[in-house]
User: What shape does this take?
Amino acid sequence: MGPTAVGKTAVALALLAHWPLEVVSADSRQVYRRLDIGTAKPTRKERARLPHHGVDVIDPGSRYSAGLFAREAACWIDEIRSRGKLPVVVGGTGLYIRALAQGLFREPPLDLGRRRSLDAWTACLEPLELLRWAGRLDPGFRGGGRQRAARAIEVALLTGRPLSHWQEAARAQGAIEPWYVVLTVPRPVLNQRILRRAQEMLRRGLIEEVAAVLSEGHPPAAPGLDGIGVREAVEYLHGQRTRGTVPEAIAVNTRQYAKRQQTWFRHQLGPSVLTLDASRSPERLAAEIAEAWKKTTP
Assistant: This one.
């Protein structure tokens, strides 16, 4: 695990020198198809070297929850192990990691008509109003983006109990016993990497990629278009900012997100955490991880 742009993919690739492994991606943005640049997915060449599960799962107009990720990831992990390989979960979406490690509830069947009506209503709410509703309906709601807030509202209204209640009830049903490796770098180094990646996104064709997805008929507030990197491109395409401001806006929003990620890693992972300085080469980090892993296994 680690904040966005810290170099997780490079370290996972370097681990191939030590283990036969496959990756389970714990990234809530990389599940969306046709948004390769905007979600900073591993390249096709990298995925050919190292199989990734959890990338390109759904279309940009669909919703994907942490609970669904946990169920599918548990299956991917079993499949990887059945091939005699080591499953390595790579990502920075804390809720996905927690769902996989601690379990999330299996929701009862929800009325499709009422669900669609709620989706239409929440899509019309301003961000602050959406967050207020989520907080009213779920005292355990800890904030987040539009999708997370809409999910809290949906579960509370359609099941009669808040999402936090269901999550607490399922906490003892975790799918795995995790061993965490957290990558970190000094803040100035991370900020430089974030800005460099944002600039590279524009050079690689971020605007054109997002325009192509919008041309399929997806609304600007579609789940797959609401993430950092893609959202700023949508704003440009709808005349809400100039093209020249897109990289800096992505960098600013990504830096804020990275700070939230780092806070989550410090307080939510428990005692079994190996923290490594990712300013060093991926190969050196991979060697340290492999050596530390040997010491944890009989």
